[in-house]
Amino acid sequence: MHEKIIILDFGSQTTQLIGRRVRELNTYCEIVPYNKFPFGDESVKGVILSGSPFSVNDTNAFKTDLREIQGRYPVLGICYGAQLMAQASGGEVGKNGSREYGRAQLSVKESNDPLLGNIPPNSQVWMSHGDTIVSIPDRFRMIASTEDVTLAAYRIDDEETWGVQFHPEVFHTEEGTKILDNFLAICGVKKDWTPASFIETTVEELKAQLGDDKVILALSGGVDSSVTAVLLNRAIGRNLTCIFVDHGLLRKNEFDTVLTNYEHLGLNVIGVDAKQHFYRELAGVTDPETKRKIIGKGFIDIFDREAHKLQDIKWLAQGTIYPDIIESLSITGVTIKSHHNVGGLPGKMNLKLCEPLRLLFKDEVRKIGLELGMQPHLIQRHPFPGPGLGIRILGDITPEKVRIAQEADDIFISHLRAVGLYEKVWQAGAILLPVQSVGVMGDERTYENTIALRAVTSTDAMTADWAHLPYEFLAKVSNEIINKVKGVNRVVYDISSKPPATIEWE
């Protein structure tokens, strides 16, 4: 059993980022709701309390009794977490005119403090809080401040407990990784969480969990399901059957290309051409959510039909990853999104669920894939939505519209690869708009379709910025799409960030 750090989630937008930073320091951690601490788990070595969208003074603020945690484990409270501990011990948290957002300079007051002692003087930190700690109890000692916030960090004298009002997990805190590393040293963890150790442990766990049972897996061509397949193949070999459904909304030539890639990996794959089924079901449908539901139901029905042709299947494997799990937990009372991978399959098919990647972030999945010996071009593939081009063709779906979207997308992605930009972009694609405009080709007036190009940079898709692609590159792509894709006479580029926009258009 791996040593672990528990991150108690009070609803902060950066809780996942805390987890990723800890994992990057080769230490396993788990994010759990603020009121679900795993008492009795002997592998827990330390606890981090996250920030929160609430003030500790709000009547609906998330609060939990920390008395059984403080003093028993090393504890680091971040922002709201620091304020919660201070208030619970008799300190005061209030406005006090010290709202601080953005960059600040941290002045460390104690050079021998285990958490902050080796942090350079006046390093930049990132603040994001409306409240501030106005006063602390007697056992608390101020160890750092900023120009506007006197109690930027504290520790409790007779406990291994610290609180910081800045965010060490965000990029703008210059020594944030070092601070988290110092906390892990305080916790005494071995820092042995690596891709190789994960593979070794997980393969053994899968062998024990599955035995001689047979497993089916729905492949999408994406990173998560592909790594899941290779990991399971290493554990159970031919007892794994993979099903790859072509719903007619994949990228150009993707069905054949992906099947070939999987054959090279030695996987047992059944390819199903279901294009006409989906085109019939989607005919005339324009509402995005209805399209998603039709595609989702169609996929389940076809997958279920193919699975019933097989004998003695006991398990359904899925490429669920940690953000899927976290975003499905209703911590603030509002589920961010439904757990999209499950999609009703396990209940419909009466199968047990196997999700070997469920505790990994996307960047960790890629590292696992490389460690498994998978080719980099498979690992570095951009994310592609489950409904595929079904949500990149705005409005109703027709085979002709699919052709246009595929051709435009293929030109865009091919050019990104050719000039070395593909790996620098998180996700890219072409969106076919339900807009026609006037154009001129030769001496003739045209009235044809518009393609919007979308490319974003991101680390985890929680937030994203539009990719600042060179004008010359965009000009070349636009020119080729208009000249070579019949039915298109105008190309635009999407310069919206997430938030407020989303990465996909539907």
State the distance separating the first and last CA atoms.
42 Å
In percent terms, what proportion of residues is strand?
A: 15-25%
Which structural category do the helix and sheet elements fall into?
Answer: alpha/beta
The overall average pLDDT, rounded, is 89
Q: Helix tally?
A: 14
Shape: globular
Helix content bin: 25-40%
| Main sheet summary | 9 strands, mixed
Unreliable stretches = 332-343
Write up what this structure looks like.
With 506 residues, this protein is α/β, with parallel strands linked by helices. The protein is 32% helix and 24% strand. A nine-stranded mixed beta sheet has the order 2-1-3-4-11-10-9-6-7, sandwiched between helices. The chain has a five-stranded parallel beta sheet with strand order 14-13-12-15-16, sandwiched between helices. Strand 13, helix 6 and strand 14 form a beta-alpha-beta unit.
